[in-house]
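Private note to self, pasted from the team thread so I don't lose it. Backbone tokens:
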């Protein structure tokens, strides 16, 4: 075997492995998409018997849209996701800017503290957080419930998302900002630019690829969150869109084709965000990989 052939062997195995992983990821998605168009047939769900339907239908999508209240849950979810996403990116960029562009006594320890917060499982702090929110007053006019505190409010869900996700975004943005030459800030300082002007007009525009990558990831994570919406919003009608699937489960049986249709509709916003930011998302993940 020639040297060229020897070098191609690992490449062939790598391509075969990637194809296998891609197929393994696509099989559940294709199965769910196919199931969403099938009729519900009681006989096909008994004893594992599976039969191919004669025709496909959109009835599952119509019923899931009406029964699951997809549109209403989508609006409530966006009310949580969009403010939380903007606050996370803004606050994390400020912390990353302070820790990377300036040298002060505790900048490294401060950055480590923000990053270490991501190592704690969120479920661990549920009970103390719930008790803390119960003691934090919140006007009834701004609350989804008449509890007078943050429990049962979308604001409480937004705050906990900001608290948990800011650390990860700070870690990513700080590593990205380190690749930006400090000479740009020094030149702007010589020209009389203030610190806020350096932050808004120099650093933030250069971090657009990183912001796009983080926005795609954070939107997906916040949108798909079920835990905090379920425990902090006791009313089912006020919960995020991921909880709308629970309405479609029957007491004694479940129409999995209907659930599959609802899952397909719920996944569309995250797919749309990825397609819209795909180019910036990829460049944000790869830019700076070859820099020291």
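Design output:
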């Amino acid at each position: 075997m020639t040297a060229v052939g020897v070098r191609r062997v690992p490449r062939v195995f790598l391509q075969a492995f990637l194809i296998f992983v891609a197929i393994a990821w696509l099989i559940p998605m294709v199965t769910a998409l196919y199931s969403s168009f099938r009729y519900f047939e009681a006989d096909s769900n008994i004893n594992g018997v599976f039969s191919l339907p004669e025709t496909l239908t959109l009835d599952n999508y119509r019923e899931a849209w009406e029964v699951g209240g997809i549109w209403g849950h989508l609006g409530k979810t966006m009310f949580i996701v969009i403010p939380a996403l903007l606050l996370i990116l803004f606050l994390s960029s400020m912390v990353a800017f302070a820790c990377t562009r300036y040298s002060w006594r505790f900048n490294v320890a401060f950055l480590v503290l923000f990053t270490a917060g991501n190592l704690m499982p969120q479920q661990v702090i549920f009970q103390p957080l719930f008790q803390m929110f119960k003691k934090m007053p919140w006007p009834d006019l701004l609350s989804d419930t008449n509890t007078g505190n943050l429990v049962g409010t979308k604001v409480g869900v937004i705050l906990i998302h900001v608290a948990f996700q800011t650390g990860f975004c700070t870690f990513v943005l700080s590593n990205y900002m380190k690749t930006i030459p400090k000479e740009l800030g020094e030149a702007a300082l010589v020209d009389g630019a203030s610190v806020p002007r350096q932050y808004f007009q120099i650093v933030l525009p250069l971090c657009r690829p990183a912001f796009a990558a983080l926005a795609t990831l954070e939107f997906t994570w916040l949108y798909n969150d079920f835990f905090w919406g379920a425990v902090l919003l006791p009313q089912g009608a006020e919960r995020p869109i991921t909880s709308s699937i629970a309405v479609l489960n029957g007491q004694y049986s479940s129409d999995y084709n209907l659930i599959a249709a609802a899952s397909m509709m719920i996944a569309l916003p995250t797919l749309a965000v990825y397609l819209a930011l795909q180019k910036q998302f990829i460049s944000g993940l790869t830019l700076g990989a070859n820099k020291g």
